[in-house]
Amino acid sequence: MNSVEKKPTDWKMTAARIAVLIIVIAITIFVYSIRHEVRMLKQYGYVGIFAINVIGSATIVLPAPALSMVFMAGGLNALDPFWIGVAAGAGATLGELTGYGAGFSGQAIVEHAKMYERLHQLTDRYGMLTIFILAVIPLPFFDLAGMAAGALRMPLHKFMIATLSGKLIKMWLAAYAGAGAFIWLAQIWGK
Q1: What range does the domain containing 147 cover?
Q2: What is the pTM of this model?
Q3: For the purposes of burial, counting CB atoms within 10 Å of the CB of 152, is it exposed (0-12), middle (13-18) or buried (19 or more)?
Q4: Is residue 143 within 8 Å of 58, Cβ to Cβ?
C-alpha cells in the first residue's frame, strides 16, 4: 500500500467532521435567530433556565443573554438559587458541545486567531484545568476553549466534567448574587 493512499476509514472521519461542522453552524444560526424569544423561557422555572442555558451556550462566539437570566432568576422568590445554578450549569455544559464539536470537525474558521492559538496551547498543556478555569470565568471566549479541546481530541467525558464543574460554580455565583441583589434592593426600597 502506498503511503500516500488514504486508509478506508479516513473518508468516514472526514465525513463525520463535515457533518458535525454543518450541525454546529445550523444550531448557531437557529439559536441566534430566536435569541429574542429565549427570554420567555424563564417563566418555565428550572426547565426554562436549563433551556435558556443550552441555547445560550450553543451559539458559537455570538453573545447570548443566559448568564444575565440566571442572575435575574436568582432574585425570584419562587426559585432556589442552588437549583437555578444546577439547571443553568447543566444546560450550559450541554450547549458547549457545539464548540467542542466545531473543534473536533476542524477549526479552520479560528485556527489562526491569536486568542484561539493561546487557548489551544493552554488546553494542550493543562487540559481539564484550563477548561475548568475558563468555564468559571464569565467571558465570551469559552467557545474557543471548547474548540481547542475538540481539536486536541480531549476525551469528551473529561471535557464535560471540567465544563460542568466550572459552569456550576459560575451559575451558583450568578444566582446567589442575583438573590442577594434583589434582597438588598427590596430593603432599600422598603425603607
Answers
A1: 10-190
A2: 0.73
A3: middle
A4: no
